[in-house]
Amino acid sequence: MKESIITKIFKQFYNISGPLDEYKKTMANAIGNTTAIMLYWFNILIVLATVIVGIVTKNYLLAFGILSSSILIFTIFIAGGYVIYAGHKSGLANQEVEQSNLPSAYKKAILKSIGYGLITAIFEYVLTSTILYLYYGDFISQLQSISSLINAILSGALVITALSIVFCHRIKKVD
């Protein structure tokens, strides 16, 4: 049976490998519910704190900065980190492979990490060039900048190395 796009997004978000069975679906739903509750209470607390800061200091720009940066930091690092940690702890990301398919699984893991590394390098290159363009102008010369290129290559290499280690570590041999 072919997976729907929603199922593919669900599996990608929770980093589920293999078929989506009842255990994996239940664990992912429990992780999602816990994350939603964390975000709900955090948003209530940070909005109240922001209102208090805004009223006390009469500096609404500061209050908005606190609100927006806190929500971004909490959502990306705390909630995202929890989803990654809980998914790893519950074994959602483990890829069970038979002994005969082990070399192929490692090859796929390394190719997947190379793909993510290339995407990261291209994104980093364009983003760095765009930011430098906003400050210094002349977008073409920023694209030709050696520092932007070196930064992108190093970022891509770091992502490839880190993801290769993580993806290969998730491969579990089944007897």
UniProtKB/TrEMBL annotation:
Could you name the domain of life of the organism this protein comes from? Answer: Bacteria
Keyword annotations: Membrane, Transmembrane, Transmembrane helix
What's the protein name?
DUF3278 domain-containing protein
| Native species | Limosilactobacillus walteri
Q: What's a Pfam family this protein contains?
A: DUF3278
- Residue stretches spanning the membrane: 37-56, 62-85, 114-136, 148-168
InterPro entries membership: DUF3278
